[in-house]
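Appendix B, Record 12. Input sequence as logged:
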Amino acid sequence: MKNRIPVTPRSLKGPGRGAPSVAAMRRGSGPSRWLLVAGVTVVVAFAAIMVVLTTRQHPARATASNAIPDTPLTSATGTSSAPPWPAPTDVPAAVARSGLPLLRAEGSVLHLHAHLDVFVDGTAVAVPAGIGIDERGGAISPLHTHDTSGVIHVESPTQSTFSLAQFFSEWNVTLTASQLGNRTATTGSPLLAYVNGHQVTGNPGALILHAHDEIALVYGTSPAQIPSGYAFGDL
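Logged structural output:
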């Protein structure tokens, strides 16, 4: 009889004598895998934080896509309906008519405020909130209103000039030398403009907005008193 070489069962092999079990491999790879995932998560979170900080530290800057025209509009195109005039429902289209860009953040190079009063046949017309602000798209024009006070905010990424016609274009209200909305100037019903209580001649749309100007636009019958100033407070 031939001597047989004894075969040691696989289950009896000592440690280190054969391929490790699947469970052992899983136990061995677990910590490394989670460390890798944790590392990737930290990197992604850090990148997101840096993007936010960069955006906050560097608000709207002038680029080719948000350039502000050197020469502002002198007449506004928009509705020719009777007042009151609400804020436009299509803000991007209204801002585009003004020639101004929509920014992702308010500009900080030029920051000023003016106040606008509008009177039609002796009655005050409210200036609505949200002019130049595209809430749906998360964008804002350098020329805009935040409330119904009549305060016009100019927050631009460049030193530029802004006109009353640009604002009325964003408001979607027609303004020319002889027309306001559906009102056409005549001898008996003129269209007049006042700055700080003083009448100015010429096209009201060509008025340039300056810091703390009080602008009154009057069609037809004048109010009992033309505003000569506005309490801007800390603005």
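Residues 65-219 form one domain.
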